[in-house]
Amino acid sequence: MDRVLLLVPSASYRASDFLDAARALELQVIIGCNEALLLTGASGSLQICLDDPDSAAEAIVALDGVTPLDAVLAVDDQGTLAAVRASERLGLRGNPPDAVAASRDKLRMRTLLSAAEISQPAFAALSPTAEDAELTRLAALVGLPCVVKPTSLSASQGVIRADTVAEALVAVGRARSIAVKAGASPDQPLLVEEFVHGPEVVVEGVLTNGELSVLAVFDKPDPLEGPFFEETLYVTPSRLGATELRAVTTTTQAATRALNLREGPVHAELRVRGGRAWVIEVAARSIGGLCSRTLEFGTGMSLEYLILAHALGRPVDSLRRAHAAAGVLMLPIGAGGILAEVAGRERALAVPGIVGIELTIAPGRMLVPLPEGNRYLGFVFARGDRPEYVEAALRAALAELDVRLERGRPVRQRAAGR
Ligand SMILES: Nc1ncnc2c1ncn2[C@@H]1O[C@H](COP(=O)(O)OP(=O)(O)OP(=O)(O)O)[C@@H](O)[C@H]1O
Ligand SMILES: [Mg+2]
Q1: Higher-scoring residue by pLDDT: 87, 77
Q2: CATH code of residue 25
Q3: Does 418 have pLDDT greater than 60?
Q4: Residue 283 belongs to a domain
Q5: Phi-psi map region of 311: left, alpha, beta (phi>0 left; psi -120 to 50 alpha)
Q6: Cβ(229) to ligand 1 under 6 A?
Q7: Ligand 2 center to residue 334 CA distance, Å?
Q8: How far apart are the first and last CA of the chain?
Q9: What mean pLDDT comes out for the span 155-164?
Q10: Closest by alpha carbon to 282, among 82, 137, 80?
Q11: Atom 30 of ligand 1, nearest CA residue
Q12: Of the ligands numbered here, which is closest to the C-alpha atom of 193?
């Protein structure tokens, strides 16, 4: 029986889906986590510091000395560096650690993509000690509107569009404070990027020896114009034309080569403009939150199944998506406050095409909107014959849901009726 060490951040949404897949593959699973985590289906656990990849890799190598491992895999962004450092030392399948480190640092990523002449927004780094005049100069360099973002966060936290230099100055202060509160070093620069107009897509893929297999391309049918970039709808297959989709795929493959990513899941975001694809980001991980539940391959394999099978070098019979069209809605957080309830769940579930709803913030907990927030409120899943139908089902479900705050007015749902 193959044995896998799964690195699971405490706040991960994905542990149970990976454990289900491991069961289907008949694997023995050990969980590596910042805290002692006992999960049903796992045979043991290892307490390690995922934020210190070197010490985590050391502990994993020591574990392998006693209990040999066949794969070390991170279920989310946070553990990816520890997983690849350990995998490299143990001779297991995985990406080069430098490539993963580069993909987790938005400035290093941009610099490597630029050196390889990959299509991407103009960008500049703003040092923490820069004066206002420096930002004015950089905004002129990359052009307005621009996007200000921390180099190390995810889930669109701290990503802010600015249309004028005055707005950029405000955005810089806000992004910096968000980054520091999230644990980033105060010495970290911010990125200032040209704002790329045009529709955005997500590429979900897997790399084998550097070759990209595209598993799904999702459209994000809600326009993402800012100033904050809340993710709402993902619908696959993409409704882009064949030429644009080719540009998306070839640009993603070229970007993975530029970063030297070679093995395992890839999650890329690109905008499409003028027949060209522009890289917003390429990450060495799979799709976040519970969004992977929209995907099923061959005769019922999950994305987690494919990722585990790939890490172990096991063949899979098909990488074809099982459903004609599928999509997910990440419930928007319109305003901050304490969540009282999400009403209308039954009505939303009754919408034809809706196959599931998972709420991931419990009543009584805080809802924090972007750009400060970093948790998803919940996920609605839909399937159907065509992407248009799936999108309509998700919008109809959203219109049935009513997010209520304690002692507050209902939060208006921005995406409804768009
Ligand atoms: N240069 C840009 N031009 C246009 N839109 C951008 C740009 N940079 C970021 N965005 C928008 O902001 C979103 C989040 O940015 P980015 O992917 O860099 O941050 P993130 O925190 O890693 O996000 P996530 O974890 O949600 O993927 C993008 O998906 C995109 O919609
Ligand atoms: Mg992103």
Answers
A1: 87
A2: 3.40.50.20
A3: no
A4: no
A5: alpha
A6: yes
A7: 20
A8: 50
A9: 95
A10: 80
A11: 229
A12: 1
19 within domain boundaries:
yes
Q: Give the distance from CA 267 to its chain's centroid.
A: 7
Spell out the SS3 assignment of 131-142: CHHHHHHHHHHH
How far apart CA 95 and CA 90 sit, in angstroms, is 13
Atom of ligand 1 nearest to the CA of 224: 31
Dihedral sign from CA coordinates of 227, 125, 267, 144: positive
Characterize the bridge pairing of strands 28-33 and 264-273. Answer: unpaired
Structural domain of 385: 323-418
Q: Are residues 74 and 139 in the same domain?
A: no
pLDDT in tens, 220-274: 999 999 999 999 999 999 999 999 999 999 999 999 999 999 999 999 999 999 8
The residue written with tokens 């180099």 in the block is 151
Q: What is the DSSP letter of 321?
A: B
Region 329-338: mean pLDDT is 94
**Does any ligand 1 atom lie closer than 6 A to the CB of residue 195?**
yes
335 versus 38: which is more confidently predicted? 335
| Exposed/middle/buried for residue 100 (C-beta within 10 Å: 0-12, 13-18, 19+) | buried
Question: Would you call the peptide bond into 223 cis, given omega within 30 degrees of 0 as the criterion?
Answer: no
- The closest residue, in CA terms, to atom 23 on ligand 1 is 156
- 155 CB less than 6 Å from ligand 1? yes
* Span from the CA of 271 to the centroid of ligand 1 (angstroms): 10
Domain tally, the chain: 3
Give the SS3 label for residue 269: strand
Ligand 1 within 6 A of 270 CB? no
Q: Which residue in this structure is represented by tokens 């522009």? A: 278
H or E element: which one contains 378? strand 378-384
